[in-house]
Amino acid sequence: MTDKKLTFAIFGSKSGASNPTRINQLIEKLISYNAIIYIEKQYLNFIDYSLNTKIKNKVLPFDLINFKADFIISLGGDGTFLKAAGRVGNLQIPIIGVNMGRLGFLANISQEKLNSTIDSIYANNFIIEERSVIRLKCNEKDVIFNPFALNDIAILKRDIASMISIHVEINGEFLTSYLADGLVISTPTGSTAYSLSIGGPIMVPQTNTLSITPVAPHSLNMRPIVVSDESKIRLDVESRSHNFLVAIDGRSVKMKEGTTLTIQKANHKVKIIKTENNTFFNTLREKLMWGADTRQLYSKSLKEKNIND
Question: Distance (Å, rounded) from C-alpha 105 to C-alpha 108?
């Protein structure tokens, strides 16, 4: 066990706050190791009612600026994890993603394994997996908000009827023009998120690749393409409404037609804590139910429904 007194910073969501028992158990576990515990101020205010008096006196609030910790704990789903990763930025603090909901590729440590995960941290029985991040520039300048994405950057139409035209260059060479509802540039981490839902490929995190996948393309010949993450991707957008949306890990902003977007790999990576058997392939099998007999699952759900009815 490490002799160092560790500091943990906890992020959470409202959905993650729905299980006060787990939150109290987590903090009690950290207290048993004499850890220093910080909880993001807004989240602490939200869960204040669920913390017992003993615990309230052992935790400290923190702001999202200039904080330090040995580990980040994200309580929620993948959305909460992405927010935590965005706020951590290039601080290089490893993140422990705890799934407080249903599906979770990033937040893939179950609530039941949370205590044993903390034990593994103190026993130095874990690995740190580094995930690549992409960066958006507009007209060769950073966007005014957080320009980094762990999952994906999506260029999307704003109105219901009209598609947009997205002209793509890779390392200065013209690739093609997509007439579509949008385009998603995904990291391997994001390949199991939005990109997967629109037909993009699943990419193993260590493959050093990016995928470019159209959203509802006008031509069926427009297929996803995988490129090196060392590529410089340039996008120019035409729109009938003369504007469009850009979503960076779900953080969206309106852009004007004529804005040139450049996407490249960032200089920093996001560090994710992995414990024994908590691997990418195990997560794929579990979350996508590979090898499961869907007929049996459907039959089981029908039986449960009939019982409840």
Answer: 5
